[in-house]
Amino acid sequence: MKQEEFVKARLTFFAVLGVLFAVTLFGQGRREQPQPPTDRVTPEIPGVVKAGTKIEVVKHGLRGSDGLVGLRDGSIILAANGGVIKIDADGNMSTLVENSENAAGLAVDSKGRVIAAQYSRKVSVVYPKGSEALLTDMFDGKPYIRPNDLVVDKNGGIYFTDCYQIGATTKPADLPQAVYYINPGGKIIRVADDVGRPNGITLSPDEKILYVNDWAGEYLLTYDVQPDGTLKNRRNFGKYDLAQKTDKGLVSGADGLCIDSQSHTYATTPAGVQVFNAKGEHLGNIEVPYDEPPQNCGFGGPDKQYLYIVGRGIVLRIHTIVQGYQGRAK
Fold first, then answer.
1. What rounded mean pLDDT belongs to the chain?
2. What is residue 243's three-state secondary structure?
3. Could you say which of 32, 142, 249, 299 is the most buried, measured as most Cβ atoms within 10 Å of its Cβ?
4. Would you say residue 29 has pLDDT above 50?
């Protein structure tokens, strides 16, 4: 075989091999999860959900589902299919953002802008088209670890969590896992670095209390919000049912977090959606009808009368007695 033919043959071989490898990966990434059972119901949680309330399957087979936020028109938005999608009150789906750069948490400010905590190590405005803007990608000259979730206050300030991916190797030069605040003027403040692995985050309806899920801890945490957005008085608020097994023992595995109009908080965990009242008392768990832990939750639908639960490419909803808080999107 001539040298030129040999080179062509090798190039053809590796090209075919590459295509087969890509097809294999693509097929694995798009493997559709079976639809969850449609006959599952919730237990009674006093003041929150009636016994026997059906767990409705809204969508399944998406490529990921996280960062859910309810909008005023009864629709929801979430991070899925590599971007940001919208599902209206009738279940119709549309794409708002094609590529969200691995958005995990989403929030909507008073201007209607969608803001994302992105695994690409930044927090950005990603929608509407033409308003895209980087809000922050570093603190003290260092890149963030992996922004995870966020909430916008009434003044336009943004609290967000930054934490390692599960199983990631920590580096001494990295920033600490922490909670940050982007004040209305754009200044970045580290407001808490005393959480084992900060994840889901939300504010009380009066915005005097900030709630933070600790994936690596036993408790849902709260802080008193100060006039300048800084935090004081860290407290162990609600004790989780511990169900996540790690090499260090049992932890909460607490992920997304939301709140209703009566200050019940809802934490998505391997034990289900754990519900706490305004005093931090654990009222019960809403178990999801599939094997993997839920990743996030939020209120949506007409008058925010449904609790939506997302994760692993699935969107569920449950009709609740109490409404979600309507003073902000999350």
1. 90
2. coil
3. 299
4. no
Neighbouring CB atoms inside 10 A of 65's CB total 27
- What is d(CA 140, CA 121) in angstroms, rounded to the nearest whole number? 14
Percent of residues, the chain, with pLDDT higher than 90: 81
Cβ-based burial of 68 (10 A; exposed 0-12, middle 13-18, buried ≥19): buried
Query: What would the DSSP string read from start to end of 90-135?
Result: TS-EEEEES--SSEEEEEE-TT--EEEEETTTEEEEEESTT--EEE
**Residue among 318, 310, 316 at smallest CA distance from 65:** 310
What is the CA 12 to chain-centroid distance, rounded? 44
pLDDT tens sequence across 162-209: 999 988 888 999 999 999 999 999 999 999 999 999 999 999 999 999
- Among 272, 275, 273, residue whose Cα is nearest residue 260: 275
User: Which residue type occupies 66?
Assistant: D
Q: What's the pTM value of the predicted model, to 2 decimals? A: 0.89
113 contacts 125 by C-beta, under 8 angstroms: yes
pLDDT tens figures, 149-165 = 999 999 999 999 999 99
- The Cα 271–Cα 294 span in angstroms is 9
Of 311, 238, 270, give the one whose Cα is nearest residue 62.
311
